[in-house]
Amino acid sequence: MPRSIKISPSILSCDFSKIGTEVEALEKAGADYIHVDVMDGHFVPNLTIGPDVIKNIRPFSKKIFDVHLMISPVDKYIQQFAEAGADIITFHPEATDNTAKTIELIKKFKKKVGISLKPKSKIDIIKDYLDQIDLVLIMSVEPGFGGQKFMPEVLPKLKELKNIIEKKNLNVDLEIDGGINFENSKIAKEAGANILVSGSTIFKKNNGDLKKNINLLRQN
């Protein structure tokens, strides 16, 4: 049975001077998740937000906080993000020296586990863990900055993962993030994605009409 399409707006594109209000507006506009990109200036060449910001915006929404950690070493920060209000914690296998241990650590805090693959990362590095996690996040840009151009070359990886998940009858969501817009959202869904992360398109298209943009991404 096909999974329903969920939209996870990235707050990286919001107006940070009123971030709480922006998160509230996303919930009212019909977002399924709130996507939070955490970058450390080390694992990726940019700095964004930390656990304190998540803690402060948590009261503004009851939606699932979908937190993507682009930080290394990742294990030492998991507890902070779990306690700040993350619901799904996604990490990169390259950011830990023991993927199984990181998965267990996230589960210890009763959070859902995601693993992210950068555009050049191979499926092989996560194949053995698919039955232990809840989500795979395929990056369709190089992680580090918002507003980059979608890389269609990641779509075969998405298709292959979908086939593996279906074959093994696993309960794993497939999320895609990077340059997702009204044009390429359709091919991302056709390739197997059931969660779409989008920042610029949701916040900037159609004069910033969040509800309209979320619906267009879901229905395209």
What does this entry look like structurally?
By secondary structure, the protein is of the alpha/beta class. Helix content is 33%, strand content 19%. The chain contains eight helices and eight strands. It has an eight-stranded parallel β-sheet with strand order 1-8-7-6-5-4-3-2. Helix 4 links the parallel strand 4 and strand 5. Helix 2 (51-57) runs parallel beside helix 3 (75-84). It is globular and about 45 Å long. The model has no long low-confidence stretch (mean pLDDT 95).
Counted by DSSP, the helix tally is: 8
The helix fraction, in percent, is 25-40%
Q: Tell me the major beta sheet.
A: 8 strands, parallel
Number of strands: 8
Mean residue pLDDT: 95
Radius of gyration: 16 Å
Percent strand equals 15-25%
- The computed structural class is alpha/beta
The strand line-up of the biggest sheet is: 1-8-7-6-5-4-3-2
**Order of helical and strand elements:** EHEHEHEHEEHEHEHH
Low-confidence regions: none
Distance between the termini: 19 Å
The shape is globular
Secondary structure topology:
Blueprint: E1 6-9, H1 19-28, E2 33-39, H2 51-57, E3 64-70, H3 75-84, E4 88-91, H4 99-108, E5 112-117, E6 135-139, H5 155-167, E7 173-177, H6 185-191, E8 195-198, H7 200-204, H8 210-219
Parallel strand pairs: 1-8, 2-3, 3-4, 4-5, 5-6, 6-7, 7-8
Helix pairs in contact: 2-3
Structural key phrases:
8 helices, alpha/beta, 8-stranded parallel sheet, 220 residues, 33% helix, globular
Structure, briefly:
It is built from 8 helices and 8 strands. It is α/β, with parallel strands linked by helices. The protein has an 8-stranded parallel sheet.
